[in-house]
Amino acid sequence: MSNATEIAVVGFAHAPHVPETFGTTNGVEMLAPCFHELYDKLGIKQTDIDFWCSGSSDYLAGRAFSFISAIDAIGAVPPINESHVEMDAAWALYEAWVKLRSGQAETALVYGFGKASAGVLRQVLTLQTDPYLVAPLGPDSVSMAGLQARAGLDAGRWTERDMAEVAARSAANAAARGGSATARTESDIEKLLAAEYVADPFRSHDIAPITDGAAAIVLAVGDRARELCERPAWLTGIAHYIDTPILGARDLTVSQSASRAAKAAIGSSTGDFDLAELHAQFSHEELILAQALGLSGSTRINSSGGPLSGNPMFSAGLERIGFAATEIINGTANRALAHASSGPALQQNLVATLEARS
User: Fold this and answer.
1) What pTM does this model have?
2) What is d(CA 206, CA 183) in angstroms, rounded to the nearest whole number?
3) In which residue ranges of the chain is CATH 3.40.47.10 found?
């Protein structure tokens, strides 16, 4: 990415991660507090946002054009410049990034929402698969991820203990972020391994929980970003690639699209990342991604607790960018990587790099 247009994350807010909310499926009740938190934090108004872009799913919401009714959280007057993607809002952020790069706006607010408790999530996600050859067979999302996990176990790429270690670390990080000091111990891992399978080779800790939630990020350009934030998280690279939807036509134990996205986003930059936020919705996915993205042992992974501690559909990928940016804004990191995924078995992957500048 050239320096012609500097773009930074200047604010991030998210709704609580809960198993169920009693609001509508258009997300308004979850989104409105996020927007107002950002307005107050940045000292801006709705009219200070040049472009709005959202990510959600009408299939998950169970209604047509749910993203239109979600605009009630913004307000109908004055009119806004708005767009939408039918996938995780990390891709809405990519669209907003393009908008800002093209000079059509100086600020953008990106948001995503999903009420996964409203339906049978595993079946809804089946609709992402090939509508002719795969979806009619009815494979649910956990079953497809299980095929990938089993392939890696049988190939010796990872073990069930490796998966349990990921889950234990995620739980410890989530507890620490919530104010409960805790550390991963060997007995914690043994307890996880002693649990019953829920979908072989998965135990419950290997699968991200059903979560309702929403998130929002404000992007700004150049000097406007510096006005809004003392220490912006500058987007130094962003890219996404997709693998074939035919599960039998690719090696499920690796992620070529994640590797390609990382190469494109990182470019010729050198040096380790202080932290990485990975959109790993199953424990084994973190193991695949760490290898595909070339992360070193010194990089903190999912300090937020990651999706295994809270996985709001269609905003969890955006949250990875938000959590990574927050550490830069707060001064606890200088360089971070954020990742989002979409589709079964890590089919599509987006990678963004962020850093602080003096």
Assistant:
1) 0.96
2) 18
3) 7-121+209-228, 127-208+237-355
